[in-house]
Specification:
single chain, alpha/beta, Metallo-beta-lactamase, Chain A, seven-stranded mixed beta sheet, binds nickel (II) ion, binds manganese (II) ion
Length: 232
């Protein structure tokens, strides 16, 4: 069984019961996150996030986020060459990969796909090309689109046969709801979760309305609230 915990924004925390995977761990600065990095209760946060596998789609602060801190707690960070080497210099344990590359870990496989976006660190350092990630984990095929715009090669990811897709709907920096619905036509996932919305004023969207429209396409879609768990 795959447990999906939505942390908020683009941060999702996946578990198969023995291995945990986190994608785009923007936690400590995330205004909507209900979980934190520490076990001690602090600002009402009482659950400590930890992960064996930390996946970072691009270098922007709302995605790279707490990945170094999580790696220092024992996880291994996977990203492109620029993000992994930059994070290593800050003390992370990281594996440098790039678009197209795959990696087998205990319990699953990841493969990086392109994303149409940009990628620089909060200090302005170049973060390489932005990516989306395909993951085979807990017997499921999962895709997280990162901060991508709509692009037709999403069809190639869809050909893998997806059980679950995470797609940004916030508009302004990424796809908006209309383009995200078009992305779902290309991705053809069994299930979909909208991400990257309602974190900051410029990306305010109606997640429930999006989920209903995805449902009408035959896709089991949930606008997950931060902290919510979905077992698949
Ligand atoms: Ni971004
Ligand atoms: Mn972003």
């Amino acid at each position: 069984m795959l447990s999906v915990r939505y942390i908020g924004h683009s941060a999702v925390w996946l578990s198969d019961g023995s291995t945990s995977v986190i994608i785009d761990p923007f936690i400590s600065g995330n205004p909507v996150a209900k979980v934190g990095l520490e076990t001690t209760s602090h600002h009402g946060l009482s659950e400590a996030v930890h992960a064996d596998i930390i996946l970072v789609t691009h270098a922007h602060g709302d995605h790279w986020g707490d990945s170094v801190a999580l790696s220092k707690k024992g996880g291994t960070l996977f990203s492109n060459f620029e993000i992994s080497t930059y994070s290593e210099r800050q003390g992370a344990k990281a594996v440098a990969m790039n678009i197209g590359g795959s990696y087998k870990f205990a319990g699953g496989t990841i493969q990086w796909f392109p994303a149409w976006h940009s990628s620089s660190f909060p200090d302005g350092t170049y973060g390489g090309m932005p990516m989306g990630v395909f993951l085979e984990f807990a017997g499921k095929r999962i895709y997280h689109a990162g901060d991508s715009a709509l692009f037709s090669d999403m069809r190639l990811v869809g050909e893998r046969g997806l059980d679950l897709a995470f797609v940004p709907i916030g508009d302004h920096f990424t796809m908006g709801p209309e383009d995200a619905l078009k992305a779902l036509e290309l991705l053809k996932p069994k299930r979909a979760v909208p991400i990257h919305y309602n974190t900051f004023p410029p990306i305010k969207q109606d997640g429930q309305a999006f989920a209903r429209r995805a449902q009408s396409m035959g896709i089991d879609s949930k606008a997950m609230t931060p902290g919510e768990l979905w077992e698949i």
